[in-house]
Design a protein that fits this description.
CATH class of one domain: Mainly Beta
Order of helices and strands: HEEEEEEEEEEEHHEEH
Distance between the termini: 190 Å
Mean pLDDT: 75
Strand order of the largest sheet: 2-11-10-5-6-7
Number of helices: 4
Low-confidence stretches: 1-9, 15-23, 211-215, 217-225, 227-254
């Protein structure tokens, strides 16, 4: 009997130990400290990890608020199969669901925050059998204007965006200029063979022959060393020979 009792106790202890390990597997992660400008919206990020498979119908998410001044803790938001925003209190119509259960995200958004929202926000998630574990806390501070670090980050973000746009425009304009230059060079290369260079000092072959034929031939008289025009001489000789032939014809007729 003692042996059986000891064995049963050992088994029960093992099951209990395994159950404790199982339910303590929930881990929740939040931003910690946050700042928000009065009148703006702020997202309270809360993510979780569970050792058990996510059951969307069984997951329970709850948000609560603990003010800086002494006071009671107030419910902010509740989720179980669907979102349940508060129907009364300072957060009425000021909270919206912004999470994804299957993505292990339990975040919410506070709309148009007020100075009365200064305090600690507690995020708690249960995914049976993981119903115990750590909770996430976010300490929110509502301010009149953004802090220097936030303004610096905002300025850097805006400046980086403007610089990126300017660089993109420069690249686009450079590409267009290069494209236009290439088109002009291509058009110039196509028109170059079509153009014929005309040298005013060079005559057409037919004109050159005509000029050559029309030029008078020059002969040198060996008797006196004088240059005479051969064409003129031939014409004069022909004129002289002409009347003699006519005279012979007249003599014959006589």
């Amino acid at each position: 009997m003692c042996v059986k009792g000891l064995y049963l106790l050992t088994v029960l202890s093992g099951l209990a130990a395994s159950g404790v390990l199982q339910v303590s597997g929930m881990r929740i992660y939040t931003n910690g400290d946050m700042e928000a400008v009065n009148g703006t919206d702020v997202r309270l990020k809360c993510t979780f990890q569970s050792t058990a498979a996510i059951n969307i119908d069984a997951v329970v998410i709850s948000w609560s608020f603990r003010p800086l001044k002494p006071g009671r803790e107030e419910s902010v938001f509740h989720y179980q199969q669907r979102a349940y925003p508060p129907i009364e209190g300072i957060f009425r119509k000021r909270v919206s669901w912004d999470g994804d259960v299957m993505g292990r995200d339990a975040s919410i958004v506070l709309q148009q925050v007020k100075f009365t929202y200064n305090g600690t926000y507690i995020c708690q998630v249960k995914n049976p059998p993981d119903v115990h574990g750590t909770v996430g806390e976010i300490r929110l501070r509502v301010v009149t204007t953004a802090s220097f670090s936030e303004l610096l980050l905002l300025a850097l973000a805006i400046g980086g965006g403007i610089a990126a746009v300017v660089i993109l425009l420069i690249i686009i304009m450079s590409c267009r200029r290069c494209k236009k230059r290439r088109q002009r060079q291509h058009e110039g290369n196509e028109e170059a063979p079509r153009k014929e260079r005309k040298d005013p000092t060079v005559c057409h072959p037919s004109r050159a022959v005509h000029l050559y034929l029309s030029e008078p031939s020059i002969e040198i008289d060996s008797s006196d060393g004088m240059i005479s025009d051969a064409s003129t001489k031939s014409m004069s000789s022909s004129e002289e020979e002409g009347p003699s032939s006519d005279e012979e014809e007249e003599d014959d007729s006589d």
